[in-house]
Structures are given as structure tokens and as C-alpha cells.
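Reviewer 2 asked us to include a model.

Predict the structure of this chain.
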Amino acid sequence: MIIFENTFPTEKTCKKRIINAIKDSLLNLHLVPKIDEKEFNLILDEAIINAMEHGNRWNPEKEIMISLRHSGDSAELIIGDQGDGFNHQTNCEKSLEEKFTDIRGRGILLIKKLSQSEWLENGSIIRINIPFTMYFYHIKSH
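Predicted model (C-alpha cells):
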């Protein structure tokens, strides 16, 4: 089931709006990530910024595409850009020390560490699987 699907301009000011729209869509369905909220925010932040900065190179004429689908006890977050992609395998082959000291590539490391993720279409699309739980609340009557 599609929870959220939209395109956004490549503008740094849109990042917070995108994250809030995703989180609001989840709340409307009573879905809560099974991971720490700060980690969830970090995953969203890194994936969105990577698409805008590295994929679209801050070109305001290019957009990023966001899709969130719910199935069972997990959700699949897909973020795509209109860039040429990149060799994500090269980053995965670096040693852990290289990854933490390199000014680039830490976002990929964080996303891989905090979620099940894979890059598609030459790296211009990332698919992130995030486990969720449903919550219910009861309103007490007096």
C-alpha cells in the first residue's frame, strides 16, 4: 500500500518539509518506526541530502522523488534523483577507518548501518527498508 508519494524541488529548504510529510503520513496510519527516532531522522536526512547534493548537484530544475510503501511490519522508502548515479560499491569497499575520516561517503555508511538499504539504477535510487509497528490509543471516557 502506498502511504506517501510525491516529488520535490532540489532545495535545501524543502528537506524539513519532506521529512515532516513522511512522518505525518506514517502517523496518520498509526505506524511508528521500530528504530530510534533520531536514527530514523538521520536516515531520512542523509538520503534526502545525498539525492539533492550528489545526485541533482543542487540543480533547482531537477527534482527528487519520494515514495513510501507499507507492507506487513515494514515500510519501503524509495528516494530517487535525476542525477547520473554513482558507484556505490566503491564506497562499500573502503575500510571502516577510511569511511570515517573521508569527508564524503559517511552518509552512505550511516544509512547502511542503521537500515537495510540498497542502491538501484546506477545509484540514482535508494531503497530503504524500515521495520514499523502499529500503535493504537484509547480515549478514556468519564
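Strands lie at 2-9, 31-33, 63-71, 74-80, 116-120, 125-134. The helical segments are 15-28, 37-55, 88-93, 96-101, 106-114. We have added this to the supplementary material.
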